[in-house]
Design brief:
Length: about 160
Amino acid sequence: MADILSKLAAPAGSNTKEKRIGRGVGSGLGKTSGRGQKGQKARSKGNINKLHFQGGQTPMQRRLPKRGFRVPDPYVTAEVNVGDLERVFEAGATVNEEALRAAKLVRGQVDRIKVLGDGELTKKLAVTATKFSAGARAAIEKAGGTATELPAKIEASSAS
């Protein structure tokens, strides 16, 4: 067994030497480093080495139409109508983010909560939110409740 292991060799052509280009004429890959004489492929930068080069065909990012824009720092706003507050909460209740989440009127990660004026409100509620529409504020105060605004939960931008 030891006699066989000592005579094992890799198959012919499986181990090749590393190409060392630009190391002089004697290396076989000197002067032009295997790129031939002149031309587009012989140049160092040029169009052929561009990231989206497609052989001279107009690249995909230029063929597709451009539409719209992306808001770089969007606010995620949850909207709640006063009609929903009437339906879910009892008279005299305190309505804040925790209460809205418990009632499943606000779900997921949001930056601000805005109360909108759609629907009727007859119950006196103490509502705390980030924003109120004029109609929602009027409806809450007309029913004898209070509307308290909080600042939005937004991190300071990197520009300041």
